[in-house]
Every structure is written in C-alpha cells, then in structure tokens.
TrEMBL record, chains A, B:
It comes from Hippocampus comes. It comes from the Eukaryota. The keyword Plastid does not apply. Belongs to the sorting nexin family. This is Sorting nexin. Pfam families: BAR_3_WASP_bdg, PX, SH3_2. Residues 1-62 form the SH3 domain. It is found in: Cytoplasmic vesicle membrane. GO terms for molecular function: phosphatidylinositol binding. Residues 269-379 form the PX domain. A 1,2-diacyl-sn-glycero-3-phospho-(1D-myo-inositol-4,5-bisphosphate) binds at R305, K307, R346. InterPro entries: AH/BAR_dom_sf, PX_dom, PX_dom_sf, SH3-like_dom_sf, SH3_domain, Snx9_fam, SNX9_PX, SNX9_SH3.
C-alpha cells in the first residue's frame, strides 16, 4: 500500500544530497521508510524522488483503514494488525487515540474533549518537529540551536524546560490535569501511563504523586543553584551549611595515578536491556512497551517502562547533577514513525545510557540505581520509589557526602582546574559536533547519490552487453556474459554502499552523539563550581561586612576544595571512559570499513575473472 | 602566479557536482588546472571555488609577461622559458604570434594586419568553445549536438563542414588567402605550416596545392555521393560505370567462419607514435610539434606533424569513406590549454587512431598509408603525396576494386543486412553514449565532492585527536596517535579517490569515445548502401523508361551485392575489433578498480592496527 504523507514544514533540499524540496501542506508518497538516519525517501506529485527529514512529514490519517468507534476488544485486534504492517504508531493509534480521549473524558471530568490532540508518544507535535525532535541525526546537526533543542541538558534553558516539562507532566499525572495533552509526546505517554497506574494502584499513587510534586519543588530549588545568575541562594547552601552528617553514604575520593579518583568497585556493574514487550490496557486501546533489564550482579531480570527510566533520570539528576553530569535519556533524540525501528533504536540507546550509568561508581552504587535494577516486587519498588523521592541530599548538598582523602587545595588552584576542564569540554564538544556534521553529510551521500551512480554504471554495462548480444556475430558470449556480470557487480556495490552506514558510521555517530549529550551537561556541573569559587573570592568582603564569620570563610575554602576534588575525580572518570569508548568505536568503524572495501574488491576481482585474458 | 581567466560563456553549475556557476565576462582565478576531464577548478570574486569546463574560460592576456616586440631570437628564448612554466601555449605564443602576423604582413601583401586574430592552434576560438571543441569529455556528453560538433563525421553536415573547412584551409594554403586567419586554430596552423613549406619548397608546392585543390573538387563530388538527398548523381556512378579495371589493387573478400571477411595479412601491422619534438621556425617565432611514428614492419621511425595526419585522414576518407568508416582525427576532441597535457593527450589519441588504422587490413595495405609510415626521404614523401592526391579511385569508385569470392546476393537480402547493421550501430551508439554520460558524472563526483568529504572526515578525526591530546590526562598517546593516523589515512583515501579516474575511468572513457566517433561514421557508410539499394529497386522503372538497359539492371544488382559483401566484411571487422577492445578495456578497468579498493582496504587495516585491541 502506497503510504501518503502530509508535509508539515517547508524543507529545502541541499544540492547533491539526494534530498527533496517540499512545501508545507504538500502531499508526498513515502517510497522508502528504511533509509535510516532520520530520513525517509519520498516522491512528490511531479514524480521527483528524494530524502526528506522523517519529522517533516506526517502520515495521512486518510491512508488508514477506519475502525468501529467502540472501546471494545475488536479495534484492539485491528490495531495489532496494522502495527504489524509497516504503518507508524501514529497511523496505528491515531484513530483509537481519539477514541481513547473520549474514554478519558468519561473517566476524568471535567475534561475537555480534545479529539485532535495527539496521544501516542510517536506522534510528532509541531514543536518536536521544529526542533527536529524526531531526527536522531538532527542532534548531530552542526546547528547549535537544533542541537540544544534536541538535548535538554545541552544548555541551561534546555535543562530548565526539559525538567520543568517533566515536572509538569509528573505533577499533572498526580492531578490528572488536561494540560498534559499539550506537552510533547513523551509527557503524554507519561500522563496516560500515570493515569493507568492510578486506575490500578489507586490513591496510594496519588500520595506518592504529591510527595513527588513537593520533591519537584526541591528539585527546582537545586536547579536554581545551578544558575547563580538567577539565584538568590547559590552553592552557599552547601558552602555555609552548619554541620555535615558523618558516616552515612559517604563518597570517598582517593589519589590515583592520574590524580583524584572515585572509589571504583571490584567488579564492574553492567546490565542488559532487552526483550521489549508490548503490553496493552483498556481492552487494547492503550498500549506501552516494557523492557527487560538484567543486571550482571543478580542475573535476575526486572521490567521497566520508559517512564520508569525517566523517573530514574530525574532522581539521578536531582541527587548527583551538581557533581556528576547526568546525560539526558535518549528519548529526546530518538526517532521513528515506524514501530520496530523506533523500539529498536530506543532500546539500543537506553542500553547505552544504562551501561554508562553502570560504569559510574557513584551512580552504580547509589541506592536509587540499585533499586531500579534489583527491586524484588511491586511493593519493594513502590516503597523504594517513595523513599528516593523523599531523599533530601540533592543538588549541591551532594557535596556534603564527598570525602577527599587529600590535602585541601588552594582556591587559585581550584579555579585553574575548573577553567582547564571548561576549556577541554568546550573544545571536545566542538570536535564531536564536527564529526557529527561530517558524518551526517557522509550518511546522506552514501545512501543517496553514490549508490545511484554505481547503479547507473551497472545498468550501462549491462545495457551495452545486451546490445552486443544483438549483434548476430558469433562467439562473443564470453564477453557479453562477463560484461553483464560486471554490470550486476556494480549494482551489488551500489547496494553495499547504501547499506554500509548502518554497519559502521551508525556506531561512530551514536557514540559521538552520546558524548555530545554528556558534554552538554558539563556547563551546568562546572557552573556550580564557578559559582562556589566566586563566593569564596568574596570571602574577605563578606567577613568585613559581617555577612560571615572568619571561621565560615575558612570552611568555605575547605568545601570548595572538596568540590574541586569531586570535579577532578569526575573529569578523570570522564577521560578514562572517553579513551575506552573512542578506542572501541574507532576500531569498530575501521574494521567495518576494511571489510567493506575488501568485499567490493573481492566482488570486482570475481567479475574481472570472467573476462577472457588476452 | 595566480592565473586569471575570462569567462567566455554562461555556465550553470549542476547541483552536487562541485561545479561553479559563472557568467560570461566574469573574471575567475584558476585554482587547479590539473583536474582533468576537461575541467578546471576556478574561484570567483566571492571566493566560491568549483569546476568549470576548461573551454568556457579564456586565460587573460593581461596575466602574461610582456616581451620586447622585436622578431629576434631573444623572445624565442623567452618563449621557451614560459612554455616550461604552466602557462598555456596560447599564453606563451599570443604575443609572439602577434609579432608574427606583423612579419607575415611584411611577407605576404596585400595582407591586413590582424594582431588580435589567434594564430596558435591551442587558442580556443569562440566557435571551437561553443562546440566544446576543447573539452575531451564533452564528446562524451549525452547531448547529441555537442557530440556532433565534436566529431565532424558524426553526421553528414558535420562531415561536410569538417571536410570543407579542411578544403578551404588547404586551398587557402596554396593561395595564402588572408581568410585563413578566420578559420579555427588547426587550419591556421595548416596555413602557417603550408606557408612555411612554400618558403622552402617554392612553387612546386603551389602546383601540388592546385592539383590538390582540384582533388578537393573530386573529394567534394565523392562527398556528395554520400548524401543522395543533395546529389544528382549518387552511387550509380559506380553501379552504372562502364567497365571496371581488372587486376590492379584488388580488395578480395573471402567467406570466413563469421561470413564475408576482408583479406587479413599474416602479421598484424602496428606502429608506435612517440617522442613528440617541438620544432621551431622563423627564429623561434613559429613553433610546431613533430611526432615520431615507428611501424613494426620497418622499425624505421618517420616524422610527421599533425597536418600530415590530417592529410592522411583526408586521403583515407576520400578513398575508402564509402566502404569503410574512417574515424575523424582526435583533433576535434582533444583539449588542453597547457602544453604538456595537450601534447600527451593528442599523442595518446593519435596513437589510438593510428593503431585502429593499422588493424584494418584494407587501410593498412593501402599505398597512401604505407607511404605515410615508410617514406624514405622528403622527396619520396612529396612524390607519393602528389600521387595519392591524384588518385581517382575515390568515393563510391572504391567498390570497383572489391572482389567478393561468393555468389551474388539477392537485393532483398542485401537490404535486410543493411538494415540490421543500421539498427545495431544505432543501438550501440546509444549504449556507448550512456556509458560516457554516466562516466562523465562519475568523474566529477570522484574528483569533486567525494574526496572533499573524505578529507573532512580525516580532518575531523585528527582534530578530535588533538583535542584529546590537550586533556592533560596521562597515557592516551596510543589512542591519539592512532586517531591522527586514521585521520591521515582518510586524507590519503581522498587523494586516491581523486586520482583514480585517471587510472581506470579514463581508458574506459577513451575507448567509448573512440567508438562513439567510429559509430558516428556508419550513417554515412550505410547511407551509400541505402542509396544504392534504392537505385536498384528503381531498376525496372529505369529500364521501362529506357534510362538503363536490362543488362545494366543486372549489372546494378550484381554491384549492389558486391557493396553488401563489403559492408558485411566491414561489419565483421568492426565486431571482432569491438570484442577485442571491450574485452581489453573492461579488464583494465576492473583490474584498476580492484587495486584501488584493495589499496584503501590495506591502508585502513594499517590504520586499524594502531589502536590497542581490548
């Protein structure tokens, strides 16, 4: 069935990149959904075919079969069928979603009937599309604005909105506020799920919701600490706090060969994210994906839905964000109108995110992370959830738990370290973005113009061969057969070229994309340190104006030194992981590239052997 | 020295082909003259850099050093120096040419002083440029008009003008008519050379010139025969000619396995065109290239200038053109503003042309061709030259020398054969043009966007590597060194990609270009047969109206059968050569392609080995 799609925004093709210029409102036919790289191949009314960003088009509802409008099991079955076809989640659920809104209104009143409001997380809201939210490569686009909008942690505002949005959806979840509908897809999903949970877990969950909402308040406070510009308080919350609780949950920092390091465990925690299962509720009107996470410690799988990952992210950001950059969840970068592709991509990125968290000694050993990986049963999970949400050692207060076993640093030295790290992360951020930009271009060429050209070469050889066959001259079968084979070989090469990026460039891009997200968190983390350093600089003035006692000034210097050790430990952790990751991905890339060129060479040698040597 | 050039014609860049859009009259800077493929890289005033067809720009005279305006040896020396630089022949000789015009005017009066008229054959006259005459690939362009204008034999008009022009220049040569200056470069060259000859050979040459001019008349007559449409006479000149001289210079046709074939010699004639020498006359004011041709029969080298090749071409076309397609000389397709490139290319193509002529049993054994290859001395050459020019067995009269040793063919059968050959040559012409078009595109991509992209990938790796080096973290030299090496490798790959077309695609293009020229001659050759067949069809009517006797009708049928045998022998010759040539060129292409991909794979394997395996 030819998939028609509506163009949501103007897109101007970049010359030579096999792109297709489309205008808002135009209807195009999807000719290939499996280009990858956030692109689909579309054909316009004039028959021109080219690549269009997947998030610039919206599949036509009209292209869908219609359902009976009753909330029975029947449509659910229908949905299942469509989902198994190559239709997008949006296609599959748009009509039923509408129905569901009606169901919702029956359940939650007062509730405005909003039949046109997207419910499926796979639906692209204009906002998302504007920010290329559904294009995984778009995060790899050099355009910083696009980058920022794709990675909520990549700049302060991004973080603010990112967390605010999550907060709303969460708060909304507790109160079932209709505005939840207006948020981006993911939040809608959260809302539905929360609503589902409520219907099952009842009021208990609402309480947690309230505690949770309160917690948000704390979260936002800790948030402000990150931006002294906007803040009355700032890091002095830690620098000047009266007494620091001893003994419990301490984070020691040791002096290693490379300088300050976290305490690393004997055995490295890791986990496998696998086996995504589609669950459904409300007689199949509501569907969700549940992933199975198996830690190497217990080897006992636990199930989590995306919203649980998001909850974990929020906890980790609240608790460790000031000392440890917590990369945002893949969500904002992941794409896919088409279920399988989407789930595969999301799972791959959740796996990457989890592995990175497992590799961090502080996070891996944290109570909330262990809970996520090893909760015994629903009750265990809910209890742990509430406890984590009530944790008050969040924001800059995390530094109260850090204990460096080393001499205090001179504030000057602290400032130098801080600036050095800032320079490096900025430079690496640029370097990573450059690779992403080049890779993005290369991806398009390899899936677009290049294979087309090899195909044309192949066709030209075969065509000439068939002309030769028509000569009526005797005894040229060897030549014509060989030429046909050579032609076919170039068609195979075209195929190889088009497939290759998924085999090598993909992982190079994924790793750099992960690092782009990670590096985007450093400005916040470093910002906290800068604020603290500035505060310490004011020390004398503050003493003179009796704002603080001389003793408190000494304490501040001591504590900023602790913060600096934490930052150094974190940088050293970052460096060792960076070296490991880039060593791995470069090897993988080059290995696949070697295979690629060797395969082509072998094919051509085979083709060559078919000619009679003279 | 930055080479400035004037844009002669508007050129609109094709998207994604690394081309530069230029407007007539615009001044650009030549940034790379060695792109090949008839392209140069130019930069416009806005700093944009891209490819422009070499024949769309004219190098500025202003960019040239100025000379003393005296016709002494001094400027000649000066010229030598410049020629060794990367300046074009035009650049090198423009000023001296002007001086020479002045010299000419002193010698040949009445003579208008035409200082602005080009004299060097390397100067591109607008006409030449219009016909892409200086772009070797342009002959490979799908655009048939371009094709035609590049190959004077590729259509009747083309042939007409081609020969007419030659005729003029030749006639002019005899009379030293100033209009010679107006013709395209090559003719000017002829004129100068002829004028030089005169100054040495004196009036004798003028006589030969006259005889020659008469001969032209014959030539034009035989020319007309090829286009019955324009002709009162037509092939009946042969079909009805009274008696056919017996015995002398007969061209037998035997029945071979594949059908009628020419008589092939025991040993294959071949020759080597090599060692181009720059000669100069008039105290170095006048310069020319002399090639050394060594046949494998005598192994004694003879020297010829381009004008001699052109003379040979004219003779062969006159004498055999009706029975045997004579591909036009490379001249019209060859390019090069830059001396070495130009001479190399022209020699390569003269070699190709000569080898093809050598491989043809009829041409190889002809008196005129043997004279060209084996003349003993200047006197011997001039005598043979005059004799050849007086030869009257030209045009359709060549068929009087053909003696098939086979039963006469039924006119119906003759017509069928003729149509079959026509269909095949047309189909092959299309197939060849398709390869040329695709190859043309591929050439641009391989020399343009693709290497640029590999270069950017290489730079991105190296850049990230140097950022890593700045981390201050210990013990990552292995990684950074390996990443730098990988980056350099991709820059090397960029180089390989850009160089590759000259190693493989070039020969594929050259061979197909040769065949394009050759196939372009068939319509004329086949046209003669069609005209003869039509005439025979009229047989009865002609008898009825007493235009011919019944006996003459019988004779016509017999002779058209002879013509058909000739055509079949020629087609069989064409086929066997085609099989040989394509077998050879396809093998060479694939061999080089295999080497190319293996080299890249090896380089990448080397780069991969530098990473520490984990």
């Amino acid at each position: 069935m030819a998939l028609k799609a509506q163009v949501l925004y103007d897109f101007t093709a970049e010359p030579g990149n096999n792109e297709l210029t489309v205008k808002e409102g135009e209807t195009v036919t999807i000719t290939n959904q499996h280009i990858g790289g956030g692109w689909i191949e579309a054909q316009n009314s004039r028959g021109d075919v080219g690549l269009v960003p997947i998030d610039y088009v919206e599949l036509n509802k009209s292209a869908l079969p219609s359902f009976p409008a009753a909330g029975t099991a029947a449509p659910a079955a229908g949905v299942g069928n469509i989902v198994n076809s190559d239709l997008s989640f949006f296609d599959a659920f748009a009509p039923t979603s509408t129905q569901q809104n009606q169901v919702d209104t029956r359940r939650l009143s007062p509730q405005p009937d909003t039949p046109d409001t997207p419910v499926s997380p796979y639906f692209t809201s204009p906002d998302e599309a504007n920010s290329n939210g559904n294009d995984p490569w778009s995060a790899w686009n050099a355009d910083p604005s696009a980058g920022a909008s794709n990675n909520s942690a990549s700049n302060p505002d991004g973080t603010q909105t990112g967390r605010a949005a999550a907060g709303d959806s969460w708060g909304v979840a507790a109160q079932g506020h209709p505005q939840a509908y207006q948020g981006p897809g993911a939040e809608d999903d959260e809302w539905d799920d929360e609503w589902d949970d409520k219907s099952t877990a009842g009021y208990g969950e609402v309480e947690s919701g309230d505690g949770n909402a309160m917690q948000r308040g704390g979260a936002h406070a800790s948030m402000k600490l990150k931006f002294p510009g906007f803040s009355k308080s700032g890091p002095e919350l830690y620098l000047l706090c009266k007494q620091i609780a001893k003994g419990k949950d301490k984070l020691p920092i040791y002096m290693g060969e490379v300088g300050p390091v976290w305490l690393y465990p004997e055995s490295q925690l890791d986990c496998v994210v696998a086996d995504p299962k589609k669950g459904s509720k409300m007689y199949g009107l509501k569907s969700y994906i549940e992933y199975q996470i198996t830690p190497n410690t217990t080897n006992r799988p636990v199930n989590h839905r995306y919203k649980h990952f998001d909850w974990l992210y929020e906890r980790l950001l609240d608790k460790f964000g000031s000392a440890i950059p917590i990369p945002s969840l893949p969500d904002k970068q992941v794409t896919g109108r088409f279920e399988e592709e989407f789930i595969k991509m999301r799972m791959e990125r959740l796996q990457g995110w989890m592995s990175r968290m497992c590799r961090h000694p502080v996070i891996a050993s944290s109570e909330v992370f262990q809970l996520f990986l090893t909760y015994k049963d629903e009750k265990d999970w809910k209890t742990g959830k509430r406890k984590a949400e009530k944790d008050e050692t969040v924001g800059v207060m995390i530094f109260t738990t850090i204990e460096p076993e080393a001499a205090d640093l001179d504030p000057i030295e602290v400032e130098q370290k801080c600036e050095q790290f800032n320079r490096f992360t900025k430079a690496m951020d640029d370097g990573v973005k450059e690779i992403l930009t080049v890779g993005h271009e290369h991806w398009k060429r390899c899936t677009g113009p290049l294979p087309k050209e090899y195909q044309r070469i192949g066709k030209a050889f075969q065509n000439l061969s068939s002309v030769f066959t028509s000569s009526g001259y005797q005894g040229e079968e060897t030549l014509t057969d060989a030429m046909t084979a050579a032609g076919k070989t170039y068609e195979e090469i075209a195929q190889l070229v088009a497939e290759q990026p998924k085999k090598d460039l993909h992982f190079l891009m994924e790793t750099n994309n992960e690092y782009k997200g990670l590096l985007g968190c450093f400005p916040d983390t470093i910002g906290v340190h800068k604020a603290a350093i500035d505060k310490v600089k004011e020390g004398d003035k503050l003493v003179a104006t009796n704002k603080i006692t001389p003793q408190e000034k000494v304490t501040m210097a001591k504590r900023v030194s602790t913060m600096s050790y934490a930052l150094q430990a974190e940088m050293n952790h970052f460096h060792s992981n960076r070296i490991y990751d880039y060593n791995r991905v470069m090897q993988l890339y080059l290995e696949e590239q070697v295979k690629f060129y060797e395969t082509i060479a072998a094919k051509l040698r085979q083709a060559h052997s078919q000619f009679t040597t003279m």
